[in-house]
Amino acid sequence: MKAKLRVVVVGLGGIGNRHAGIYQEDPLAELVGVCDLRKDRADAASVRLGVPAFSNAKEMFAKLKPDVCSVATGGYEYGSEHYEPTMQALEAGCHVLGEKPISNVIAEAEKMVAKARAKRRCYAINLNHRFTPASRLAKKWVTEGKLGDLLFINMSMWIKNPVESSPYFQLKALHPHTVDVMRYFCGDIEAVQCFATKAPGRKIWSTAHFSFRFKNGCVGGLTGSYDIERGHPMERCEVAGTRGRFVLDDMWREATLYPAGNLEKTVYTNPVFGGFRDFEDTFRDRLHSFLEQVAAGVAPAKIDGSGADGLAAQKVLQAAIESLTKGKIVRVR
Ligand SMILES: NC(=O)c1ccc[n+]([C@@H]2O[C@H](COP(=O)([O-])OP(=O)(O)OC[C@H]3O[C@@H](n4cnc5c(N)ncnc54)[C@H](O)[C@@H]3O)[C@@H](O)[C@H]2O)c1
User: Fold this and answer.
1) Taking a C-beta distance cutoff of 8 angstroms, is the pair 131, 276 a contact?
2) I want to staple 41 with a disulfide (CB 3.0 to 4.6 A). Which of 12, 266, 297, 312 is the partner?
3) What is the rounded distance in angstroms from the CA atom of residue 67 to the CA atom of residue 232?
4) What residues does ligand 1 touch, defined as CB less than 6 Å away?
5) What is the pLDDT of residue 1?
6) What is the pTM of this model?
């Protein structure tokens, strides 16, 4: 039997604790350490998970020599803290799975992607929304030509997040997921136009709409919001081509294929037994996929939901912010 991958987690807020718990249940992983600058958080996770606690990531890497590190730090716009521990983990030779957004600063994201390339390590981002059986099936429909030539994509996602950290918080922190899903199905985005609004009582652009032109000629629309309480579904993705159209509800609940000119539709519904239990299973699926690819020796450039994908999404969002502030269409650079 192959040895399990030795895994550590840096950053022990709600999300880092979730990563750590999932690794502990994953047959490919052995959780060997946890780290947070905050001693109370590191100690609490250490007690809960039965692994040593650290407050200095560099020291943890030197002592434990892990194969894999999750970087689940946060910070300003949910992304300012990822750079330092990611660079340290890559320097120490770890494969890294970072939280989204890859960074709130494009230049730092570029350095992390370059570092992973130079060190020949796998670097991925937790773009968990498309790590579902329904999403993989929809992707198969696209690659098998069931949609024909792609024409348009419509995506929307809405949750409640009252944090007012920066005017562009919603654009930069929510939409790495949606832009990634759209790029997954339709490829690179070359131009963006963005409009946004502030919900009553809010100071930030808390709801936004984006129009995209893709490099393959496809067009798309994305609407997202940090203003809607949970309780009902939270996202929807529709992709249409010359031969058919699919709709994904919540990315994991249901995928429906509507073939053009044919009255019979195909529906995949999340199975009651053996399917996804809830949204948290997108994390399980995503973390397990990364472990599987690392264990199988997949080339860093072929990693699913890579750092390069995370960077590409963030560049689209940067162009959207420029569009919003200047009131014009912006090419993605
Ligand atoms: N993928 C998803 O669906 C999803 C959902 C929600 C949040 N997130 C992301 O998860 C990340 C974490 O979110 P959170 O709510 O748990 O954040 P948080 O701020 O509660 O926790 C981050 C922790 O990282 C620690 N930290 C920061 N820099 C560190 C360093 N250099 N070394 C060690 N520890 C360090 C902080 O002390 C803090 O305890 C964010 O980037 C957020 O965008 C992802």
Assistant:
1) no
2) 12
3) 39
4) 10-16, 35-38, 41, 57, 72-74, 78-79, 81, 84-85, 99-100, 126, 128, 173
5) 66
6) 0.97
